[in-house]
Amino acid sequence: MMKTPVSVGALRKLMKELRAAGKDRKPVALGGAGEIARTLERELTRGGDPSAVRVGAPQGAVVYVHIATGDDEAALRAARRARVPIVAVAFDDEPLPYVLATDIVRVGPGERLPVDRIAAAVAVRLGEAGAPLAGRLPMLRGAVCDRIVASFARKNGIVGVAVFIPGADLPVLALNEVRMLLLLDQAYGLDLDPRQRLPEVLAVVGAGLGLRAVARELLDFIPVAGWAVKGGVAYAGTRALGEAAIRRLQLVH
To answer: Do residues 107 and 143 share a domain?
Structure first.
């Protein structure tokens, strides 16, 4: 029987870590322009947990979304001091203190509140931490899942390029793929019980091994650019696995 690249111990440790992260019930805090913040609160909580979003101070939040008013420094400074990630929504091109330009969602004249773009900015800012939040707020789910898949596809593409010893990359690639799968499950509100998730994990590991076999076959035809082949297969394969997992989760939810 072939030994799988992900040990039982590593799998248990991963599930324990992600389940602990899933117990964090910190909400999204909204601040700044009050009426717009309340509108955004209604949009983000649609079909989800109302306690996952609040209008108020950034302290104790998982992320602070600030609606710019022109008098923003005090609120943004408070979020920075509380070490809460910030996403800002601005209605002009002026810079905002304590906020990276990439974390500002610009809204044009007459444009409706771009909830999808705000959700995408939150997903980028939170990374993996967005998965438990998406489990409570379906409005964030698509953006968070897309971000998770893109991130792990990129990571595995880099691993595929960087590791030259045949087979040495398998444990890293497989564990990344399993982590991606479990985060997607978490984003859809599923419990990461090992007994329930084991069939999915085994399927992902098996698919990953199949993709690695394809890469080895291709190396026989393109030996000179083998690093590019490995990286490309790792990237494309991980993205395909993630997108297939999302489609499966969409069908059952």
So the answer is: no
